[in-house]
Please model this.
Amino acid sequence: MPDLAARLADVRDRIARAADRARRDPSRIRLVSVSKTFGAALVRDAALAGQIDFGENKVQEAQRKRLETADLPLRWHLIGHLQSNKATKAAALFDVIHSIDDAALVRKIDAAAAAAGRSLELLVQVDLAGEATKHGARETELLAIFEAGRECTAARLSGLMTLPPATGNPEGARPWFRELNRCRDRLLAAGIEPGHLAELSMGMSHDYEIAIEEGSTMVRVGTAIFGIRQAG
Model:
């Protein structure tokens, strides 16, 4: 894609400007390029433009791309729902998993990572709106998940993720981003270690600038970099 590097540069520039508006350091915001449904060749093109972090929804698709780009120093993020029966494979493939929603899943991933001699970062997906069509833990379930995280030896809980309800206006996501920040504050007040809550993964192609203004440390951007998503 001839303009992929230009799109990537534009997203980085928008991240920097949003961080400036919020008086934040743009270097503290990690851009995850969501490469799901796009081929390994485009991942390679983005890597040549300086991109390191890539997000995938499915374990099998990520496995293929990781093999095809094994010569590149990339970090792979699982941003889609993780079924318990795929936890072992995910622990061997990904460096960051954004979709933890259960204490048992934390323990299973930690055991699999330890057996594989790997370390990885985990984010807890929080269901703030109670949408039946989305995954995630409710706030009342979070303390149990973080308690399981304290016992980990290979995996490490490092923050929260959310997917706000769909809205035609990016500003419509702002209250949900603010609520995730407040949720983190409540967990800190409940005694969860700050290091386990350092990251907030929120914001996608249509609202990542709003998310940065509201404290996001990881934005998951696909269409704005790779173009219109392919079927799959």
Remarks:
- The longest strand covers residues 155-161.
- The mean pLDDT is 95.
- Residues 40 and 65 are 5 Å apart (CA to CA).
- The longest helix spans residues 4-21.
